[in-house]
């Protein structure tokens, strides 16, 4: 299926590994020139090389830095000043008990998972609207629909972003600029493995044993493959996806039990 975005330019945040990497790869598969960013320069360079080898005609620009900082955002926007596609993504805050979180913990979570996407949208959306094409995808979390008690920092910050986008996305769509969110459930990523360690230790089992147990509990009987996530992102960025905006799309193998 040709998504009609060959030659477009995309910024994909936190894209050296996991879901962000999968999104960058899927867009490159469609002929999109990608600017990828992450804090880890070595992993970012490996991902950039993989994309270049798979798609020699695609321009890949790598920007090592922390997207949650003004300097990190400035560097990415300097590398791709007029993106047609923006995929917002940042690592989630750590799990824990809200009684132990300080104001600084909350501010850090809100900066990373709410204000950073908003700042990047602010910097790019007017240009997209003027050019009459734009696709913005925010990678949030299934916790937006089904909160996870130990991920309160993430629940709060990502829900704030979701509420903001609900209004903005209805204003941009007339200019063929859509804004949607992808809500990942359990995907096989470093983040998933990292959050399993504490519970595994508490229960006296290995992280692999815990993850195998969790996978069986999902209606799909497995965790998601990041490639599946990347393909969903690419579809939302497609030229024919202009009638989808303001939506929060779950990719969780059926874990959320609700009808809406």
How many beta strands in the DSSP annotation? 7
How much of the residues is beta strand, in percent?
Answer: 5-15%
Rg (C-alpha, Å): 18 Å
Overall residue-averaged pLDDT value = 95
Measured between the Cα atoms of the first and last residue, the distance is: 28 Å
Number of DSSP helical runs: 8
* Secondary-structure element string: EHEHEHEHEHEHHHE
Amount of helix:
40-55%
Low-confidence spans: none
The main pleated sheet reads as: 7 strands, parallel
| Morphology | globular
- Structural class, judged by helices and strands? alpha/beta
For the biggest β-sheet, the strand order reads 3-2-1-4-5-6-7
Quaternary arrangement of the chains shown? single chain
Your description of this structure?
The structure is a single chain. The protein is globular, with a radius of gyration of 18 Å. The chain has a 7-stranded parallel beta sheet with strand order 3-2-1-4-5-6-7, with helices on both faces. Helix 2 links the parallel strand 2 and strand 3. It is α/β, with parallel strands linked by helices. The protein contains 8 helices and 7 strands; from the N terminus they run E-H-E-H-E-H-E-H-E-H-E-H-H-H-E.
Brief description of this entry?
Helices cover 47% and strands 14% of the residues. With 260 residues, it is α/β, with parallel strands linked by helices.
Secondary-structure map:
Layout: E1 9-12, H1 18-29, E2 33-38, H2 41-54, E3 60-64, H3 70-79, E4 85-88, H4 103-131, E5 134-139, H5 152-172, E6 177-184, H6 190-203, H7 207-217, H8 226-236, E7 248-251
Helix pairs in contact: 1-8, 4-5, 6-7
């Amino acid at each position: 299926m040709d998504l009609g975005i060959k030659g477009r330019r995309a910024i994909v945040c936190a894209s050296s590994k996991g879901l962000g990497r999968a999104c960058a790869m899927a867009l490159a598969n469609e002929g999109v020139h990608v600017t990828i960013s992450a804090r880890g320069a070595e992993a970012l360079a490996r991902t950039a090389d993989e994309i270049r080898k798979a798609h020699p005609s695609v321009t890949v620009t790598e920007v090592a830095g922390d997207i949650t900082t003004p300097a990190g955002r400035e560097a990415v926007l300097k590398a791709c000043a007029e993106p047609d596609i923006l995929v917002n993504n940042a690592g989630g805050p750590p799990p824990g008990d809200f009684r132990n979180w300080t104001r600084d913990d909350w501010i850090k979570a809100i900066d990373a998972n709410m204000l950073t996407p908003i700042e990047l949208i602010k910097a790019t959306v007017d240009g997209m609207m003027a050019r009459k094409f734009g696709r913005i995808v925010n990678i949030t979390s299934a916790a937006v629909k089904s909160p996870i008690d130990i991920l309160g920092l993430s629940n709060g910050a990502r829900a704030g972003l979701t509420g903001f986008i609900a209004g903005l996305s209805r204003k941009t769509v007339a200019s063929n600029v859509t804004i949607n969110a992808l809500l990942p459930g359990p995907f096989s990523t470093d983040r998933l493995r990292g959050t399993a360690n504490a519970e595994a230790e508490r229960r006296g089992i290995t992280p692999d044993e815990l993850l195998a147990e969790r996978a069986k509990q999902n209606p799909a009987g497995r965790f998601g493959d990041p490639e599946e996530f990347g393909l969903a992102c690419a579809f939302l960025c497609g030229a024919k996806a202009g009638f989808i905006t303001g939506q929060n799309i779950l990719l969780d193998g059926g874990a959320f039990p609700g009808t809406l």
